[in-house]
Write a structure and sequence with these properties.
Structural class: alpha+beta
Strand order of the largest sheet: 1-2-3-4-5-6-7-8
Helix content: 25-40%
Distance between the termini: 8 Å
Number of domains: 2
Strand content: over 45%
Number of strands: 8
CATH class of the largest domain: Alpha Beta
CATH topology of the largest domain: Nuclear Transport Factor 2, Chain: A
Length: about 150
Amino acid sequence: MKKFFFTVLSLMFVLISFAYGTLHIDEKLKQSFQVRFPHAQNVSWYESSDAYEVYFVEARVQTRIIYAKDNSSVNFIRYYKDSVLPYPVQYLLQKQYPGKKVFGVTETSTVSKNGALSIDYHLVLEDLKKWYLVTINKDGTVSLDEKYNKR
């Protein structure tokens, strides 16, 4: 089942990459990125009609940043394991789901033009019999989205 999730995640990453053509990326944006993420590896830039996107790996964390061309927002999507989770999030998980192991995390963050920050955590948890899809939103609410039996 783990191989299935990694395969699906990898396939989604590849399909998204092909959905956008490599075009002219704003040089100021690229320079700003290089200053903010000097240790980024495997950097790939893409342009859509309304945004610039960059994919990269830094400290073993896969990251995707979407810069809106109208400067209305910047979206960050990071994929990682439980060791990178902030301690308050780990605490909430241990309290709500004792004995469950974190299989993977997708962290989504948005910074709006006015500087407002929103962060959500989408987690896949597991135990011996089940998979649990859990969301922790910006106000600390923990919700079970779905659960599946392992086969």
